[in-house]
Amino acid sequence: MRLVVGIQPVREALRAHGSHIAEVVIEEGDHPQLSALGRFARDRGATVKVAPRAELDRRARGARHQGVVALAPDLELTSLADLAVEAGALYLALDEITDPQNFGAAIRSAVAFGVNAVIWPEHSAAPLSPATFRASAGAIEHARLCRVTSLPGALAELAAKGAVVVGLDAAADVELGSLDLSAPTVVVIGSEGTGLRRGVRRACAHIARLPMNGPLGSLNASVAAAIALYEARRQR
């Protein structure tokens, strides 16, 4: 089981897993929003416990819990071999996104834009932690997740299946909107500090930039992911 903290993450975990949630613990006292969440949890077949804030603090292990924690089933990971490159498929690959806030926010955008799977390397990546779950606002409960041993290798395999791999780089000569993103596409986002690694860059068929006219040279990785996924969906 894994720990989920925060009102919206717990709500989405309940939507996704219902009675498979082992326990929902809500802070005691008069809290209308928490009371409503407790009723929702019971309606979904989950066991609800009321406890003092000190117990929630202990269970949350330092995470901001907003008065509620839950024990949810472990997230299921999809293998790369199970990812079919079909017409209209859209994937998001995250290269060394180590900050849980960025990682979770990117997953939230992926779910919002109907991404078929989020792919990331098993090393140098943010953990699947309560902080990541909360940063995704619970969207991770609805995401298809694929953790791979080698991201360049995974991108090459998807390309061999017919996907077009497009990496983002603020210094690229080509704007993202000028590419045809209506075919099966993998959008690759690099870390804010170093961008795409050399091996990942070599696995990309195209390197493109977002159109930016202001004084800033780059965007937060999760924001860049959201804009790129929007453009891909717009073309579809």
Q: What do these coordinates show?
A:
This protein is an alpha/beta fold and 236 residues long. It has helices spanning 7-17, 32-43, 53-60, 100-112, 130-135, 151-160, 198-202, 221-235, and strands at residues 2-5, 23-27, 48-51, 68-72, 90-94, 117-121, 145-148, 164-168, 174-175, 185-189, 206-209. The mean pLDDT is 95.
| CATH fold category name of the largest domain | Alpha/beta knot
Counting H and I runs of at least 4 residues, what is the number of helices?
A: 8
Q: List the helices and strands in order.
A: EHEHEHEEHEHEHEEEHEH
Helix share, percent: 25-40%
Topology, please?
Blueprint: E1 2-5, H1 7-17, E2 23-27, H2 32-43, E3 48-51, H3 53-60, E4 68-72, E5 90-94, H4 100-112, E6 117-121, H5 130-135, E7 145-148, H6 151-160, E8 164-168, E9 174-175, E10 185-189, H7 198-202, E11 206-209, H8 221-235
Parallel strand pairs: 2-3, 5-6, 5-10, 6-7, 8-10, 8-11, 9-11
Antiparallel strand pairs: 1-4, 2-4
Helix pairs in contact: 4-8
Keywords:
alpha/beta; 60s Ribosomal Protein L30, Chain: A; Alpha/beta knot
